[in-house]
Amino acid sequence: MKVIVNLYHIKSTNGLYFYALDYIKQLDGRILKILVRPKLYEHIINTFPALTVKICSWVSLVRELFSADETNMLIYTPTPHPMPFLNNQLIVMHDFYPFNYGKYSTLKKLLLKISLASSNCRVAYINKSEMLPSILSMGIEEKRCLFAPNRFPSKLDIETRSNYKRGAILKVALVGTDSPKKNYDELFHMIVDYNVTDKFIFYIYGHENKYYHDLCADFKSINISIINSDTVTLEQFFVNIDILVSVANHEGFGRPIAVALLLGVPCFLLERKVFKEFFDPGAIFYETVSEMVLEMISYTTKELPEVNFLPSSEYIMAYENALAVLSQN
């Protein structure tokens, strides 16, 4: 069975985008067409020059998906956007942030429930600790669900940090600028309150947008820089980083955290179910942002902790199983 990949709902090269790439790269022999928004076209066509990539409007997307369903093709949508009434599709749930927060969250959740009920599609989830219970609570039968986690990079994929040298000021990595769910405001308020703005340089890996500019305007005393994720790989980004910090409250996985740990970069994370699921043991966990910042301050004058991390074989096998399911449909 041929596969139509629906990337229409991915608007930038964010975590959803890279999640999708890790699956598409393993399925390109079965893929008939990839559907995208105009903004994503160049990225996809440059990555998959041998595949057919089509720019869609909403109307043409609906036409393409219904045509695919009529010809018994599998529609693979690596985002939480099922097309109503089409059964032969697999969608992916990453986190519930869009359905619980924001101006249109209630409407989004209602549309999701209607689409899931009318389509009878398969529903993939990327973590067991939060997404599976949330999906089941919506009345979705477990037999419709598929565990399809992110691909963990192998150590063979990752360059060494042979050029890494620690400086006098701690270089801190923050990852993502997609929304306030990153919770950087709370972190920066703590840095200001503890009067340690001169102890750290914060490098945010993501895109220059309103959220980033608002942070810079609100915290002028803090040294904040953006590293464009379209031009710098995660491996390149972490070459001279001292620690990674995440104070996010709603994450589905944390691809940059996985790369950082495999590179030996200490990762300071809040105690969240998803982070514990994937990165314990390996990362260092804190109950509060205040506790984390105090520990960050202590490491400005002492050796950084060593990192020992290996991904669980359970999740590596689950990724392979999800690929097999996609290939067999």
Automatic annotation (TrEMBL):
UniProt organism field: Geobacter metallireducens (strain ATCC 53774 / DSM 7210 / GS-15)
Protein name: Glycosyltransferase, putative
GO molecular function term, any single one: transferase activity
Gene3D superfamilies: Glycogen Phosphorylase B
Entry keyword set: Transferase
SUPFAM superfamilies assigned to the protein according to its UniProt record, in alphabetical order: UDP-Glycosyltransferase/glycogen phosphorylase
